[in-house]
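Complex record, two chains
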Amino acid sequence: MTARVIEARQINKVFNPAREEQVIALQDIELAVSAGEFVSLIGPSGCGKSTLLRLIADLIEPSSGELQVNDKSPHQARLDRDYGMVFQAATLLEWRSVRKNIELPLEIHGVGKQERREKAQAALELVELGNFGDHWPWQLSGGMQQRVAIARALVFQPSLLLMDEPFGALDEFTRERMNMELLRIWRETDTTILFVTHSIPEAIFLSSRVVIMTPRPGRITSIVDIDLPRPRSFETRALPRFHALVAEVREVLRDAHVLE
Amino acid sequence: MKRGSLRARVHRLAPTLLVAIVFLGAWELGVHLLGIREFILPPPSSILAEFSDELNIFLGASGESILFSAARATLWSAVGGYVIGCGAGILTALVTSRWTIISEATMPFAIAANSIPIIAFAPIMNNWFGITNPASKMAIVAIIVFFPAMINTVRGLTLVDPGQLELMESWAASPARILRTLRIPNALPFIFSALRVASSLSVIGAVVSEFFGGPRATLGVYITQEASGFNFASAWSAILMASLIGITFYVVVLLLERWLMPWHHSRSE
């Protein structure tokens, strides 16, 4: 039996409760993610997908409901460094070299110098930037910076990787290459990935499951299993099944809109 | 240094040098051709002659150059006040930014105080510390540079990328850790821009506060006395000296900035 990495039951999140500008960001969220899965959260702006990610990361707290990460409270999981996080912007510290940026989470955790070096180098090699450790962040392209951010998130070898539209700011070509890279990293590291995006093809190409969310109030409308063969490659996007899945997800989103 | 880069530097500097030469040439010629009297505007040649006379006295053993003693005294007031004022400003910012409420409450006052002409307090400081005591000039300089240093530091400490803060939180970093690793380095460019502005302000503050009285051997007093004694070339040579001090001070701070923030400097090249 595979372990549960994320378990969310009856999660609600209300911003500005009992005020006029009250917003129900999430309503009755039920989600279970098992170890080794690649799950995407998809939906239009305001559907609460980033909010859900931040709840799991313990950066905000749910208004009600039960949430567990690795069978612990999200707070404990954060203290135990159970997850790594990647945002749309690489958010590298410009005054630190690439290597020092990757070492930062280890440094904060009090890991010794020698071990920091080794782990950072291993993470750099994982994202195929082994020779770029001594560069300044601004000397790298957008795609390379995002790889550094992924290396930094993985340097603790966390069991869970939380990604909030990590390739949203990249051009289409870089984005597709990064998708392949991410699948390779996922295979090599046994990490569970929760991936927020608003690109339907990207979600389908990457995931084992796609969670479709709709706004006002933010909730999960449906969950689609992606039965495309693995390993996935550039040819995957040409498969009739791929297009059928894209159409299916689009249909769900359109229906949800019509119901409003 | 590579030949290419030296050549590039010369190319970059050439227009500036040309402007300087044309300006000084026009000044010299204009004074002679228009017959402008010395007490209105002496030509650059007589200012330079006066300056190099003082320089010779200073370098030689024969007597003491008042201009250079004055320069030393003014420099001391400017640098002393600068260090005290900037140091206090940065420290205050570090302390108040620890408690957002305090820094938010004090910032409007700091910004308002920054637009007060502090120099108007010079006679008061003369009363407090004594007219010939350099502390009265240092106090003015310190107050003038305190506010820009404090305001910029607070801005730099608080204007942090929210994503970087979230990451720090996700790593369960302590507030002290966030201050050291994120907020202070983030504030450095802000602090240095204040330090550069303050370097010029401190020389202005020192000279102008000396206009309100002080020992004979200070640039402000020297300028007022020479001008009222119709020694215009020597008054102008003291102005030249004050300018040189101001420019040198600025360049020193700039070099310090480049040395302490290599990432910032190399990025802008």
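Note: Helices of chain A lie at 49-56, 74-79, 98-108, 113-126, 142-154, 172-189, 200-206, 240-259.
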